[in-house]
Amino acid sequence: MTPFLVQYSGSSTRLFFRVFFTVISALITFAGKKCLSTRAKLKLAKGRTVKLTLLSPWLSNFDSLSSITKTHTLPGGWLGLVMIAAFLLDRASDLTSALVQSVPVHDRCQFGTGLVVGDKGSISLVPWNGAPYTVVSQAQVVSLQNGGEQGIYRKANRNINFAADYEDVLGYWNCTRNELAYNYGWNVPVQAIQSDLYQYGLLYGTPVSVSSLSSNASTSHLVILDTSAGNQTHTLFDVRIAVDTAAFANDTKNMQGYQCVLHDTYDMLRPIQLAINSLETLSDWRQIFQGAIYDGSGTPASNNTGGILEQVLNSMTMVAGGQNYLLDTSRSSDTQGCLTNRTRILWELVLLTFLTGLTLAILVLYWIGLALWLKWLTRSGDATTMLMIEEYTPTGPFGWMAHAVREFKRPLMSSVEPADLRNWRFGKWAHGSGYGIVGKDESANYPDEAMSLGSSHSYKKPGGYVRAVESPYDE
User: Fold this and answer.
1) What residue spans define the domains of the chain?
2) What's the rounded Cα separation, in Å, for the pair 289 and 209?
3) Which stretches are transmembrane (predicted)?
């Protein structure tokens, strides 16, 4: 099942659920106690007796389970199942921390200040050594790391959470690698390589190159760039690039060709490209291309050479379209794709919340139904009897303490083990002076316990007879 995402922080969400479960647990305990006592009073008001185990207090901890082994029955009848369920749900609520997680998601964030493409026209000779190039180049790296798109962005800044989506991308350069690569000896002049690659269709007619010169006058890290526009300006252009993939100057040069084409998604990049003097700009940017392709001296070309060429060409186009200006605030209120944190609520916690709330709702509705029924019987029944039921029916531990004092005035009865409680009844005393323990369930298959009204009492207990002295309170 799909988890739920909320904008609140993880700590606030965990606190909310912790408070929620604490409050609901307290309300379940309160409603459960009311259900037990109201149900017992209702049975008594109808002239029936109540099993002692149905007068169990509400057990909201492990006692709800352990009491079964002691009494051999559910505490509170079927409400015992609700007690156990409430206890298990309360324990499960301790998993809140694990079921609430902070996760990064893609969103739209306010842009602020940065480079804005296309608002102020373009420039013909694109600068390569300024902060705008660094920012737009890094923006593409950050976007890819954050799961966003690479391309020519409408806007770019130093936001480390930037993750471009399709709304942010005006277009992109696509560099396709030529299937054929050509090898040249380490001592073949660069001019000869350029002429040969031109013959093979890997270059146009106006190439510019850059290479690293070694001590023996040989070259390494050769990169050759060329534009389809040649010396012409105010024209659209493609770019062809040949890259030496070898690491050292004395290695055989393996020249790999790339064809780079601009894709203008919204037809907004055409004016920018027309304004660029492509040949002069490529000549100025050739060291940028070379430095990006290799990882330093004695290293081969990157396995992602095509992606690197696209990134540099994208950056060149953005710097041109943004007028090499990084402090543009004209789009400060606009948004850009970004990566932001959201709180993920797993469906297990949602289910746990639903079941906990449902448990409370069942108890409240059951209590209301019992209370209305009891109220109706109170109005139609004997007022004295109803008052006695309200006064004498034990509810909870303190109610049973008070009842124990009242029972102390009666003749002592035989020992009753916890497992025997399910066979005893609570009801109206035979002499009519109140309500209390009246005897065993008639269907119980147990021998009658001895009860005496004399000055001394004997009752059977496993292992022999125990003698009880007369109570000074007996009447």
Assistant:
1) 4-97+348-468, 112-333
2) 10
3) 15-32, 349-374
Q: Which amino acid is at 111?
A: F
> How far from the centroid of its chain's Cα atoms is residue 152's Cα?
32
Strands of 401-443 (E only): list them.
424-428, 435-440
Cross-strand partners of 208: 225
Question: Which amino acid would we find at residue 22?
Answer: T
